[in-house]
Design a protein that fits this description.
Layout (H helix, E strand, L loop, with lengths): L1 H18 L16 H12 L4 H8 L6 H15 L8
Helix pairs in contact: 2-4, 3-4
């Protein structure tokens, strides 16, 4: 592993000497547009007063899906709150 790290440091040094500073990488969150519908279903059911465990039972019968529903609810809040303004 140390050999790989050393090679990476060397490659970065050579790049900087030849081209200047390394370009900054912009981290973009992953957009799961294929799951927006389910995010919003979770949101709607939560707004109707259902608990996340009830929502998990309703949307994913027979599965242990509470973690998935929690994640979808969190992502729905981001979507509703404007966290997805720059969809590309």
């Amino acid at each position: 592993m140390s050999e790989i790290e050393s090679a990476i440091r060397e490659a970065r040094r050579e790049y900087k000497e030849k081209h200047g500073p390394l370009p900054r990488q912009e981290l973009r969150p992953r957009r799961r547009t294929d799951q927006f519908k389910e995010y919003l279903q979770v949101w709607d059911l939560k707004q109707q007063g259902l608990s996340l465990s009830r929502i998990a039972e309703r949307l994913h019968k027979g599965e242990t899906a509470l973690d998935r529903v929690r994640d979808h609810y969190r992502r729905a809040k981001e979507l509703i709150g404007g966290g997805y303004k720059a969809l590309k």
